[in-house]
């Protein structure tokens, strides 16, 4: 029996449709319902009684998520039917092109590593512009969930421990060395538990759009402290993706146990369809899982537990990384060298109270990481807020937290002493600083009225340190010329309060 090219192409389309329907575990009736067709029509197409239409092919591709196979089969059939070339003019792209596609992810390699209380994300994506317009920005979502199976508890927790831009420390790049370019980024959405960011195909040196038909690789990296993050790593398929690889890099000494699940619009949570592989090297346990043609809107999640448990307290030399991770700017940040802006009270009272809340939450977390027998303080610029606000915890941990709004020194004693100070913005060293033993400080109340408060000895030093921050100074600016900074490993006074006669 002789068949025409059109008939052979229609048969091929029907076979492709049947293959993907069966692979997705759908009956003809179920597929028809999701496509919005009568069940008999799907049956007729599969039995070659009806020829496929463009609308039918589009809907089948969208429902079955066939990686472009159904749509490509229809295009071949339709091209023959219209007596035209089976491929469009110009060189054929090396990947499938679903209808209406813009950016296609040809490959994603997502790695999450854990070390000393800090999680580091490193996401690589090979992109292809299958659309008709230049791509100038790319949207990514960064999210945390401390208790992923307890949404109410997690929401309460993150109201007090919000995710901050400063702690994320986002860096992004486009291309491969030696032509790799840093990418600027711009916030799109800012919530306690998640952020959305536009990665821009531009930087201070120029723009580098991804034009139709071009390929590139982007990489973005960010960090999250373990206090804010549950033990899970999820990748959501939001763009057509050819290949996804997810990796975990964990300390082998913690005896990690890893498993995975997947969810989609048509299925509840199920185990991953293929096993996760493990390799050990240099004290690290590395886990990897890969899938081809993942379903659009599917979510793939790796979860784990540490049989031996992570360390409960960070080593002092590594505490600087933990402080950075919770949003405290570190030495070198521009804002630490800029004078803070005074509040217009009482008009700015809501702003002032919100800044104080953020400072209080951050200071509480800092005190959970390390004991501060000498007292401790935090200024708004250290959290990336430009306002003239600071809080101070006196050496007595049961004392009430001191709130300073628009403070300025109006008097000081003529007697001074020299003590070693530390700073949350560069915690790994200590420096000897000369300060007066008494300060008179004028500061504002919530209603804008001003009051003068006298501080002596340790409190005078703590308050002076925070006012320096609000004036754009660090304690190293007050050290004597040639006075060295002492590494915290060599400093022997940690945990001991200052004493005064």
Structure, described:
The chain is elongated. The protein contains ten helices and 26 strands. The strands form seven sheets. An eight-stranded mixed β-sheet has the order 5-4-10-2-1-12-16-15. Strands 11-17-13-14 form a four-stranded antiparallel β-sheet, with no helix packed on it. Strands 3-7-6 form a three-stranded antiparallel β-sheet, with no helix packed on it. Mean pLDDT is 86; it is low at 84-96 and 311-317. The longest helix is centred in the last third of the chain and has 21 residues, at 349-369. A hairpin with a 5-residue loop joins β24 and β25 (450-456). α1 packs antiparallel against α5 and α2 (28-35) packs across α3. The chain has helices spanning 5-23, 28-35, 39-46, 54-64, 69-81, 151-160, 165-168, 319-325, 349-369, 457-470; strands at 103-115, 118-129, 137-143, 171-174, 181-182, 185-190, 194-200, 202-203, 206-207, 215-225, 232-236, 243-251, 256-264, 267-271, 277-281, 284-292, 299-306, 376-379, 389-393, 402-405, 408-412, 416-421, 429-436, 438-444, 450-456, 486-487. By secondary structure, the protein is an alpha+beta fold. The protein starts with a helix and ends in a 14-residue tail after the last strand. It folds into three domains: 5-81, 434 Repressor (Amino-terminal Domain) (Orthogonal Bundle); 103-306, Immunoglobulin-like, CATH 2.60.40; 338-487, Alpha-Beta Complex (Peptide Deformylase), CATH 3.90.45.10.
